[in-house]
Write a structure and sequence with these properties.
Layout (H helix, E strand, L loop, with lengths): L4 H15 L4 E5 L4 H13 L3 H6 L4 H16 L2 E4 L6 H12 L6 E5 L17 H19 L3 E3 L25 H5 L2 E6 L20 E9 L5 E8 L4 E3 L6
Parallel strand pairs: 1-2, 1-3, 3-4
Antiparallel strand pairs: 5-6, 6-7, 7-8
Length: 244
């Protein structure tokens, strides 16, 4: 929670849609369409999100915001904000969207908010079973529709009990099926989240405005890390090398 996973997903959606002209279908079970749109506008305008919400902007900033809003509205980003959506309903919505749009990327925010049911239509009595079914269901959706699915997930709180707080595959919450089904697993790590905490001997130290994007699993490629910039007030991730 609060590590920036929704912000990263929105940055990816924005880059795919605006920079590369790809259509993105964004399922948000946690935030409304209005909230996500406001975040996208603040991200694109590079303005403080809280000031955008409060309309506390200068005349120049307001004009810029209006111009940017048109860019976001015209971008091929479809947002579905159905709360606690079931996998069966999600599959139907994707199939319906594909009849009128060429969907290039599906983003799910976030996995633990989804619902999976048995063949009889009942909820699974065990949470581990349900999350396992959700993981398999998302993989099936990706293969059935031949569209990549980026699914956000929360980690267990066990990571906060360790001396070294960098996330590991074992921290994936509720089910080992998430690790098994995923082709690619990326973790976010921010020193700032832990108020500059770094254990003795750690190679990591406080890096204000920096985030490590850690590739912990890659079925078809190498593992590694990428250092990104993060402007929290704008909920914007960026490539530090490009903005130097």
């Amino acid at each position: 929670p609060s590590m920036g996973k929704t912000s990263l997903a929105l940055t990816i959606a924005r880059n795919a849609a605006i920079d590369y002209g790809r259509s993105v279908l964004f399922f948000s079970a946690e935030m409304s369409q209005d909230e996500l749109t406001q975040r996208l506008v603040a991200l694109e305008a590079r303005l403080d999100l809280s000031r955008v919400w409060k309309r506390n902007l200068s005349e120049e900033e307001r004009i810029h915001l209006i111009e940017v809003s048109g860019t976001i509205i015209d971008a091929p980003i479809l947002i579905d904000d159905t709360p606690a959506i079931a996998l069966t309903a999600m599959r139907s919505k994707i199939r319906r969207a594909l009849t009128t749009e060429d969907i290039d990327l599906i983003i799910v925010d976030y996995l633990q908010k989804l619902i999976a049911t048995t063949e009889s239509g009942k909820r699974y009595p065990d949470r581990v079973q349900e999350v396992s079914e959700i993981a398999r269901g998302l993989k099936d959706i990706a293969r059935e529709f031949r569209v990549p699915v980026l699914a956000l997930a929360q980690l267990s709180r066990a990571v906060e009990a360790r001396a070294e707080k960098v996330p590991q595959l074992s921290d994936l919450r509720d089910s080992g099926e998430l690790e098994q089904e995923a082709d690619l697993v990326l973790f976010l790590y921010r020193d700032e989240y832990y108020a500059g905490y770094a254990p003795d001997g750690s190679s990591r130290s406080l890096r204000p405005g920096s985030v490590d994007l850690i590739c912990a699993k890659h079925r078809n490629g190498p593992l590694g890390e990428l250092r990104l910039g993060f402007e929290a007030s704008q909920t914007r991730f960026y490539c530090q090398e490009r903005e130097r």
